[in-house]
């Protein structure tokens, strides 16, 4: 299913068609989630924080969060590590997947990020906020256990 943007909607009827399409997509997504027998999901989140001036230029980079906002799924983001100098060195060699302007822009937007947190997103089905929070607690507990000497870790 293809969902259209709300930009350009000029009538109540068009808005209701859009809301109906979103709800149809939401139900299809929930059915697939259940068919896969998922309890919850850990997925990427853009990170670390983008350099000043770049967030407005990279709105497509937040697609991981936009999806769950659209679907009205409970989701939470938590830091799991921090950017290291080794990560910074690897970024210098990063060419991206498509070597397009977006890859180049993203590389600039996350440069000089040593010490900034890197996070993941935990997601659950609608009305399963407790499940989402429980998964977040598990991730937090595991990352504390694995990185107890990380001075940049916000969990100390």
Strand element count? 3
On the 0-100 scale, what is the average pLDDT? 84
Quote the distance from N terminus to C terminus: 45 Å
Q: What percent of residues are in strands?
A: 5-15%
> What order do the SSEs take from the amino end to the carboxyl end, as H and E?
HEHEHHEH
* Helical proportion, percent range: 40-55%
Biggest sheet descriptor? 3 strands, antiparallel
User: How large is the count of helical segments?
Assistant: 5
Low-confidence stretches: none
How would you classify the helix and strand content by structural class? alpha+beta
Number of domains: 2
* Tertiary shape: flat
Radius of gyration over C-alpha positions, nearest whole angstrom:
19 Å
Major sheet strand order: 1-3-2
Compact overview of the structure:
The chain is α+β, with helices and mostly antiparallel strands. It folds into 2 domains: 1-37; 39-146, no CATH class. Helices cover 44% and strands 13% of the residues.
């Amino acid at each position: 299913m293809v969902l259209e943007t709300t930009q350009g909607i000029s009538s109540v009827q068009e808005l209701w068609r859009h809301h109906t399409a979103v709800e149809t997509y939401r139900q299809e997504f929930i059915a697939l989630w259940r068919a896969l027998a998922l309890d919850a999901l850990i997925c990427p989140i853009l990170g670390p924080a983008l350099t000043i001036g770049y967030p407005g230029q990279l709105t497509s980079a937040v697609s991981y969060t936009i999806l769950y906002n659209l679907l009205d799924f409970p989701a939470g983001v938590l830091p799991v590590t921090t950017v290291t100098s080794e990560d910074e060195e690897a970024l210098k060699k990063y060419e991206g997947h498509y070597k397009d302007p977006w890859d180049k822009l993203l590389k600039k937007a996350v440069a000089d990020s040593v010490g900034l947190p890197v996070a993941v997103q935990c997601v659950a089905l609608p009305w399963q906020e407790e499940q989402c929070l429980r998964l977040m607690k598990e991730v937090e507990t595991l990352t504390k256990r694995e990185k107890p000497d990380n001075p940049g870790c916000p969990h100390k």
